[in-house]
Amino acid sequence: MIRKQTTIQDIAQHLNITASTVSRALNDHPKIKKSTKELVQQTAKKLNYQPNSIAASLRKGRATTVGMIVPRINRHFFSNVITGVESVLNPAGFNLIICQSEESIEKEKENLKTLIANRVGGILISISIETKNLKHLEKVIAHQIPLVMFDRISDKLDVSKVENDDVSGSYDLTKHILEKGVKEIVWVGGPRSSSIYKNRYNGYKKALNEAGIDHEKQVCFEGPITLDSALDFIRLYLKKNKLPEAIFAASDYMAMGIIQGLQEAGHKIPDDILVAGYSNEPFAELISPKLTTVDQFSEEMGRATAQLLLDEMETKNANTTHNHIKTTLKPKLIIRESTQKK
Amino acid sequence: MIRKQTTIQDIAQHLNITASTVSRALNDHPKIKKSTKELVQQTAKKLNYQPNSIAASLRKGRATTVGMIVPRINRHFFSNVITGVESVLNPAGFNLIICQSEESIEKEKENLKTLIANRVGGILISISIETKNLKHLEKVIAHQIPLVMFDRISDKLDVSKVENDDVSGSYDLTKHILEKGVKEIVWVGGPRSSSIYKNRYNGYKKALNEAGIDHEKQVCFEGPITLDSALDFIRLYLKKNKLPEAIFAASDYMAMGIIQGLQEAGHKIPDDILVAGYSNEPFAELISPKLTTVDQFSEEMGRATAQLLLDEMETKNANTTHNHIKTTLKPKLIIRESTQKK
DNA sequence: AGAATAAATGCAAACGTTTGCATTGTGGTT
DNA sequence: AACCACAATGCAAACGTTTGCATTTATTCT
C-alpha cells in the first residue's frame, strides 16, 4: 500500500542531489552525466516513481493532451477516425480526451469549455449538424489553441481542415448508376445545410446534368439521417407513386431503410430498382443484396487530421506563422450487388 | 488575439481583492458575500477568464479526469459502453480519457502508465484477451486509484466489477434452439481462457446437459473472434462433414462468417440449419435472414460501471472502507428469423 | 601551475489554483 | 464603552515539475 506518491524530490533526497538534476536526468537532458542518469533511473524504479504530468503541464504551460469532439462516438465512421487519430497522436506522446456533441451545439460549447479548462494542446472537431454559428470556435482560435476541423467542416473558419471529397464520391456513384441505363434517380439524404450533404447532392447533380438529365425534375427527400426516417419516406412514397428506377441514399443507414421498405412492398433489388448508399458501414457488405456505396477511408482521415494538428502545434511552439492547409481525401466507389442489374 | 491567459490573479487585481476570494467566489464558497460573487463572475466574463483545471488538479491532488481502457473503440459494444459511461461521468463533472489496448497486454500497460501519469481520478477497464497476469492492475490498486472492471473481468482482483451474465444469456439462447427440436448444436467462439467465452460456453453446456445431450460429443471450434476465422472454419468443416442441425456462434461476427459460408454452399437458413449469434451488433437485424442473438444492454453497462466508479471515488475521498460490488446485468434473448424454422 | 574552457549540477522562481489559519470589519449584547 | 460573535476577506504555503542562470567541478591548453 502506497501512502504518498513518490516525487522527483524523493529521488533527489535519496541520492543527495537536487530535483533539477533528477528532472533533467529523467528527460534525458544532454548535460547530465550518463552515470547519474542511470542512477536516477534505477532509484526511480526502486521507489516506484510515477511521473506527474499534471505538474509538468502546469509548469510547461501546455498539456500532453489533445481534445477531440465528434457528434457521436458509436458511429462506425467516427470511431474509425478516432482510431486513426490515436495511431498518430499516441506515438507522438499525446493522449486524447474524447467528447461527444450528440449533434447539439450547446453540448459542443460545453465540450470546448472543458477542453480549454484542461489546457489541451489542440482540438480536433467535426461539428454538429446543428452548428451554423461558429463564435465558440473563433474563441478557441483567439485563445491560440490549434484547431483542426475534419469531415464536417466550415469554410468560414481559417484553420486547417481535412475533408472528404463528397462531390467526387457522389459524382462517381451517380455516374455508375446512370451507366446502368436509368434515367431517373431519387435522392435521399440529410439536410443540405450541412456541407456534407450539400456536397453529396452537388456531385449527384453534376453527374445528372452531364448526362443531360434535369436534376430539378428528380424527387428529393431530405430528413434525419436514420433508417427509420428513410423507411417512413419510402413507405409513403410507394403508396402514391410508381416505383422509381433507382434511389441514391446519401447515407448507408438511410439506404437500409429504403431497402427494407422496398422489400416489404415486394420489390426486388437490383432487378426492379437500383439502390446505393454512402459511407460503407460494416453492414453494407453483410446485407442482402450487398450494398453499393462509397468508402471514406475513415482511419486515414484520422491520421491526416492528427498530422495536421501536430504540425500546427509545432508551428505554434516555434512561433512562426504558417498557412493553414486543407487536405481533401478522395473516397472510393465500392460496387456491390445492389446496383448490378442482371 | 489573446496573448496571455487571464488568471484569477488578474481578476483579483482588477477588483482590488485577493486571489483567494476570487477562487472562493468562483467556487460558490458560503463565506463569500453575494455581491462579491456577482462582481467576480462579471469581471471573469469580461476578462474572458477560462479556469485552469490543470492547476486546480495539481493543488487538489486529484484530477477531474477518468481513464478508460477498452480493447477497441470501433467495436459497437464498446463504443456504446463509452456512451453510457459519459452519460454518467460528464454530469458529475468528470471527463474521459479513452485508451485502446488493441488486445495487447503491452499496450494495456502503457495505457495504464499514461493514465497514472495524468493522475486520473479513477480507471475503468475491460482487459485485453491476452491479459492473464494482472500485476499491472494490482499496481493501480496499490496506488490507491479506484479501479472498476467491466465486461472482461477477472475474479482474481478485489475491485468492483460489472459483468454480463453470459452464462444466462447463452443458456437462454441454447434452450431456445433446443426447443426447435434439434439434437446437436455446433459451438463456435473465442478462446475459453477469456471469462466471456468460458461463461458463454458454460451456459451452452448447461442447457445441453439439462436436455440430456452430452456436450462432450458436440463439435466445438475456438478461434479469433472474426468473420473470416469463422468462414474458414465452416468452409473446411462442410468439406469433411455432413451439415449440422444448428450452429451457435458466441459472437455475431463469427455468426456472420458462418452464414456466409453456409449460403455460399447453397444451404438455406433457417430451413436447413439454424444459426444464432451473440451481442446484437447493429447488422444483426439488417442481414438476411435476420439474426437471432443476445442483446447486452451495452449503454446500461456503461452507466452501471461509471456509477460504481463514482461510488468508489467518493468512498476514497471520505476515507471510509467499503466493500467492492459486483453488478451482474442480465442480457436479453432476441429471437429473429435465423432460428425460426417454418 | 595557472588560466581558460567545458561539463555537470545546484539554486530559486515560476506555472495557477486551493485552503488552513489569521485578520479585519460589522453589528449586537451587556 | 467594552466585549463578543460572526461574517467576510487576506496571507502564505503548498501541489510537483521545469528551466534560465549561477556555481561548482573536471579537463584542456599554454
CATH architecture of the largest domain in chain A: 3-Layer(aba) Sandwich
Major sheet of chain A, described briefly?
Answer: 6 strands, parallel
State the name of the first-level CATH class of the largest domain in chain A.
Answer: Alpha Beta
Q: Into how many domains do the coordinates of chain A divide?
A: 3
Question: Largest interface by residue count?
Answer: A-B, 44 and 44 residues
- Average per-residue pLDDT of chain A, rounded, comes to 93
Q: Could you give me the name of the CATH homologous superfamily of the largest domain in chain A?
A: Response regulator
Structural class call of chain A reads alpha/beta
State the CATH topology of the largest domain in chain A: Rossmann fold
Specify the overall morphology of chain A: elongated
Q: Into which percent range does the helicity of residues of chain A fall?
A: 40-55%
Question: What fraction of the residues of chain A are assigned to beta strands by DSSP?
Answer: 5-15%
Order of helices and strands of chain A: HHHHEHEHEHEEHEHEHEHEEHEE
Concise overview:
Two copies of one chain form a homodimer. In chain A, 44% of the residues lie in helices and 14% in strands.
Describe what you observe in this structure.
The structure is a homodimer of 342-residue chains. Chain A is of the alpha/beta class. Chain A folds into three domains: 8-51, lambda repressor-like DNA-binding domains (434 Repressor (Amino-terminal Domain)), CATH 1.10.260; 63-164 and 299-329, Response regulator (Rossmann fold), CATH 3.40.50; 166-296 and 334-339, 3-Layer(aba) Sandwich (Rossmann fold), CATH 3.40.50.2300. Helix content of chain A is 44%, strand content 14%. Chain A has helices spanning 8-15, 19-26, 34-46, 53-60, 76-89, 105-117, 135-142, 166-178, 195-210, 227-240, 252-264, 298-318, and strands at residues 65-70, 95-100, 122-125, 147-150, 160-164, 186-189, 220-222, 246-249, 274-276, 293-295, 326-329, 332-334. In chain A, the strands form three sheets. In chain A, strands 2-1-3-4-5-11 form a six-stranded parallel sheet, with helices on both faces. In chain A, helix 9 links the parallel strand 6 and strand 7. The longest helix of chain A has 21 residues, at 298-318. The mean pLDDT of chain A is 93. Chains A and B meet through helix 4, helix 5, strand 2 and helix 6 of A and helix 4, helix 5, strand 2 and helix 6 of B.
